[in-house]
Amino acid sequence: MREVYFIKQNKEKWLGIEQVIQGKIKKNPDDLSSLYINLINDLSFAQTYYPKSNTTVYLNHLSSQIYQKIYKTKRVEENRLIYFFRTEVPLLVHQYRRYLMYAFLFFTLFTSIGVLSGAYDKDFANIILGEDYVNETIENIKKGNAVGVYQSGSTWGSTIGIIFNNIGVGAKLYIYGIMGGVGTLFALLSNSVMLGSFQYFFYDYGALKDSARGIWLHGVFEIFAMVVEAMCGLILGASILFPKTFSRFNSFKKGFKDSFKIFLSTIPFTICAGIIEGYVTRHALKMPLVVNLAIIISSLAIIGFYYFVYPSVVYKKINNHNHDAVL
């Protein structure tokens, strides 16, 4: 069958499924399951005869959306919150995984700009970090306490302030995406350049090792979450700029809904980062190096697995289950 005829034959059905996904047409769980199985058959046919076609990409996307609709509509035995983190967010991260890659590429580029700027302009750190902070940190380095700035204030007071500040930064990275993603990139540029110049500043004063022992205790969760929040902003921006088969408004609604769920998933990591910074980082140089490394590596393993590895695991598991169900 020619692809044009295949599209013409099924176009109305697919548009109807879009209406269901958008909530304009209500279906019970059994009807949704029938639609899904029918759509999977179309997808299998397209994958066989038009493997590199946009039709196949479209049907794959539609199948993912209707599947999520089924599992949101039917009752799930597990706790809703557990389902959110265990299944819903990983599926969304997998669906938008290229935006996570874009966010990390921009983060790496912008951080490198900060490092190079600090290397070629010795006053750059003063401009970015502030003279008072720089002078205080230099004095701490001379005293052999590179992370001294984290030892001021009470533990619980610092923790609360840090958590709210980091959530605020993450919210800006996300919400600024409404400006077509440009606002998100600008916010990411500002924070990444600051990080790059900050790290080079310690390198320049021979305290990079000591600073890393402290900063990355909380920095792994904090910075990784920041990049995921930038990913959410890029998704939001793309939903406005590239509506695809949806109207621009419906594309925005869908993009906002999906990206907001991913953004919410970063909150626990941000809170953990604040707790570590408030309670643990101040003791970084008194701790055995092996403890520092254990916290840093385990933090990286946890958040890296959740956003890079686990989404593919969930997606493959569900796809295999669906394939078996169809057979």
UniProtKB/TrEMBL annotation:
- Transmembrane segments annotated in the record for this chain: 99-120, 173-203, 215-242, 262-280, 289-309
**Where is the signal peptide, in residue numbers?**
none
Q: What is this protein called?
A: Membrane protein SpoIIM required for sporulation
Keyword presence, Hydrolase: no
Sorted alphabetically, the keyword list is: Membrane, Transmembrane, Transmembrane helix
Q: Which InterPro entries match?
A: SpoIIM-like
Species: Chryseobacterium lathyri
